[in-house]
Amino acid sequence: MELFVTRTNTCGELRSAHVGQEVTLYGWIQYQRQGLFLVLRDFQGLTQIIIPQDEAHAHVKKLLSNAPVESVVRVTGIVSLRPPGQENPKMPTGDIEVKVETAEVLNSCKKLPFEIKDFIKKSEALRMQYRYLDLRSFQLQYNLRLRSQIVMRMREYLCNLHGFVDVETPTLFKRTPGGAKEFLVPSREVGKFYSLPQSPQQFKQLLMVGGLDRYFQVARCYRDEGSRPDRQPEFTQIDIEMSFVDQAGIQRLIEGLLQYSWPKERGSITTPFPSMTYEEALADYGTDKPDTRFGMKIVDISDFLRGLDIQFVQNALSYPHGTVKAICIPQGVRYLKNKDLESLKESAKSQFNQEVMEIICRPDGSLKSLLTKFLGEKQQSELIQALNMQVDDVVLLAAGEHKQVCSALGSLRLESADLLEAAGLVLRDPSAFHFLWVVDFPLFLPKEENPAELESAHHPFTAPHPSDTSLLYSDPTKVRSQHYDLVLNGNEVGGGSIRIHNAEQQRFVLEKVLKEDSEVLSHLLEALEFGAPPHGGIALGLDRLISLIVDAPSIRDVIAFPKSFRGRDLMGNAPDYVTPEELEPYHIQVSWPLEEKEAKKN
Ligand code: ASP
Fold it and tell me: Is 302 exposed, middle or buried (0-12, 13-18, 19+ CB in 10 A)?
């Protein structure tokens, strides 16, 4: 008997051991067949209900036969074995059925915008508009319930086993310099706005100054980054900060946390996770979040080609950081069509402005390429060996500046893996989870829009690598940081750093390196002067982590009420217009672009 509610069982529970019992079930009508039986559904499963046909139960029969699908009903009846031959081995409750005695339609369902059954395809926009109906699907029920269990285990691990304190921090705050764009919230003070924090970063550091030396929070964060396919303007982090800790301490904590909260049905994960420097990640995989579930690493072949009289090779190698690199696509000849190869080359050109050349390994082991006429037999076999080429492999080769070549090949590596898999070659085990720490990031990177200026690779509070501290003042571009990212199957699922806890150094970074107005952060800078302890932390992106664990195509599939990729709530229609009267207390007026004014009129 379930506590607090009037049902005796859920719809997924009954087995042959229950035969003879009188039960009361509540659920939604999944199917109804010709007034003979129906299938009742709740989060746990499905139960077959037999509608009585005798005169005495005419009322119940009428009620259940007329109720539309997805109406919510109560049935009370006796659990019986299904007649021999009618068992359904695919259904956990498939041995039994419930013979109804009494029933009640608690609320009828009007015509549905889509069928609830998981196998029915529906557009994402429609699913989002009727999210409360979509939530009835087994898949979303599973995702949200698993998410809740994982978070519960994380709380247990952090608070009960390791003495962390769960502290809530404000979501109405002020602008943080550097990093993502923040949402503004108007205030009643003329011209003044709050910002919604992109993370509780400042507060968690201030908690360390306040002596709460192990903090965590399931924290809502906000970033106004416009439309991106797999980002949400609001998202959730498992946010962590500790005093008197080093990088290894945070890493071991997170490994323990993930191991403890990892769902049993997804196998087990081994710790410690492997680690790779930023430089290695870029050189071998062309990205700071390598998917290490498969090989196809980038190979530097500059030395094989250096002495040869090939114009584009010589050109590339004559520049500083000039290089020639390649990736080898296994069985590319068999699995990739010509148009696939063309689209790979086209994508390197359009995304990275990078020319790419192919080399094919023929069945007799010889190479087919525009390059071969420049290569002697010895050089050909050296190249085959360096790239570990087999018959029918395709090599993609790029020459140019190190970072550009690596980024282009890194992207082609992933694109060609997708193409190979679409053609039937299994490269990445869908049930494998490859965690990886990426460490030793540079502290600063050139700004994309203006490479002469620097921005923080992580955020402005990240401490320099202890052995590079003096470089901070002489050549900040060369400083490595104490920033670490956690990567899972090629996705960044977390990032953090050891922080600067010295006010002077923090002021130097803000003012002299990043050219930010440190006045906005005067409270933090001042706090660092009051005996701030050394500290560091990390944040895990909960939505992305859960979506990878349940193998969901989008983070929206693990969020109960997600925003569309344009940042809209399609169900409640947010953001929405407000009247000029509602804006008055905020001293704000909308200046309508002409075309929108027209659109609003119609
Ligand atoms: N606040 C950082 C972020 O949101 C994480 C951290 O450094 O702890 O990326």
Answer: middle
